[in-house]
Write a structure and sequence with these properties.
Blueprint lengths: L4 E2 L26 E2 L1 E11 L6 E5 L5 E10 L5 E5 L6 E4 L3 E2 L3 E2 L2 E7 L12 E10 L2 H13 L14 E2 L8 H7 L2 E6 L3 E7 L6 E3 L7 H4 L2 E5 L15 E12 L4 E6 L24 E5 L7 E3 L12 E6 L7 E4 L11 E4 L5 E7 L4 E5 H8 L4
Antiparallel strand pairs: 1-5, 2-14, 3-11, 4-10, 5-8, 5-9, 5-11, 6-7, 6-10, 12-20, 13-14, 13-16, 14-15, 15-18, 16-17, 17-18, 19-20, 19-23, 21-22, 22-25, 23-24, 24-25
């Protein structure tokens, strides 16, 4: 008989938001975006009472994510969490948060392969929490509160000129291709940041203030190809989801975390980004593929705060968490954009790791980060 697996109740805390050190401008802000909320439930999936499945339905929710407080199954038996038509299905191998299911309904199913019956009455699965994504109305309410909160709106500098990544599929295919290497991070079921592939190996990067430790990395989903199908449209491609596997390196001052993912073979087709390890020049044109507020991939390319109308370097020697760590710009970003790559238009390589809002917004220069991670990538 299989062993009991128990995990402490998860919280909805998500990623921490770090305060700027003494002497830094108070207008700077960091942070992940809210994705949804945790609902407390008390549901059991058992062997003998006919409850071999459970359905969770929250009308309008973007996703459903089920938490298993304990698993006690017979050898060979297993659980799945899927959407109603079975086009997205994830096998559950441990207690804790299962991989999310896109959409408003999730089904938990116990699959039996073992026919033992003398002790099965005491076996089963306990579901104590469900994390579900916001509905459209809830997302609008969260966005409104964020705009009213001091400095949160300042990450969009002037008019919001970000566009869906797919808008560049024909007009600038290089930008579109680069956006494919950028992923949405769903942290602890309710918090959002952005991450991206670094080089050809199984390496990804985001901010330390999004994921700074192995504990914070646990139960983090990495969504690739979360993009709109048409420019300005509402239909979204079904994302390819993998788990964050291991934190490989991190630094709170330079605000980066390097990590790997599970099932790397599933996301290799989306490509990767290369690093440009130099200080970019003032006025150099930039672009930022990102998941602002956890939305499908967008790209910031222009800015009405720049004299030439470009997303461009405003100050190549800007202070972040330390002196002269960052490059600043007026490219539009929002909560959830934390961890996005900042690319040079001239090289199409990453020159900075976005982490601050405040207009100007800023990112840590890759020349500063590269010295610490070069042996790992």
């Amino acid at each position: 008989m299989g062993a009991v697996t128990t995990l402490a109740l998860a919280t909805a805390a998500g990623a921490a938001v770090m305060s700027a050190p003494a002497g830094q401008p108070e207008t700077k802000s960091t942070g992940s975006a809210e994705a949804g909320r945790v609902e407390r439930v008390d549901k059991k999936v058992n062997y003998l009472d006919g409850q071999s499945s459970a359905t969770f339905h929250y009308p309008g929710a973007e996703y459903i994510k089920v938490h298993f407080a304990g698993l006690l199954l017979l050898p060979g038996d297993f659980l799945t969490v899927s959407n109603p038509d079975g086009t997205e299905e994830h096998r559950v191998t441990r207690a804790g948060w299962a991989m999310s299911v896109t959409g408003e309904t999730a089904q938990v199913q116990l699959h039996r392969t073992n026919l033992l019956s003398d002790v099965v009455a005491q076996l089963g699965v306990t579901i104590d929490q469900v994390s579900r994504g916001f509905t459209e109305r809830e997302r609008e309410e969260v966005a409104k509160r964020s705009r009213e909160r001091k400095n949160r709106e300042e990450s969009v500098c002037g008019n919001d000129e970000k566009l869906d990544a797919v808008c560049y599929k024909s007009t600038d295919p290089v930008l579109y291709k680069r956006s494919k290497a950028v992923a949405r991070l769903l942290i602890k079921g309710t918090e959002l940041c952005t991450g991206w592939r670094v080089g050809a190996l199984n390496r990804m990067m985001t901010n330390f203030h999004c994921i700074g430790s192995a504990e914070e990395a646990a139960d983090t989903e990495v969504w690739f190809n979360y993009q709109c199908a048409e420019c300005g449209g509402y239909d979204v491609f079904r994302p390819t989801k993998v788990w964050l596997s291991e934190v490989l390196a991190s630094n709170s001052t330079l605000d980066y975390t390097l990590f790997s993912v599970s099932s790397f073979e599933l996301i290799q087709k989306f490509g990767y980004l290369e690093l440009d390890v130099r200080r970019p020049g003032q006025g150099e044109e930039l672009y930022i593929p990102q998941h602002p507020t956890g939305a499908p991939a967008m790209i910031a390319l222009t800015s009405d705060q720049d004299a030439a109308g470009n997303c461009a370097v405003q100050n190549p020697a800007y202070d972040g968490y330390d002196t002269d760590t960052d490059v600043s710009y007026y490219c539009d970003t929002e909560g959830g954009s934390s961890g996005s790559p900042v690319l040079s238009r001239s090289t199409n390589k990453v020159v900075a790791l976005h982490h601050f809002g405040g207009c100007p917004n800023s990112g840590v220069r890759m020349e500063r980060i590269f010295t610490e991670i070069q042996s790992l990538i």
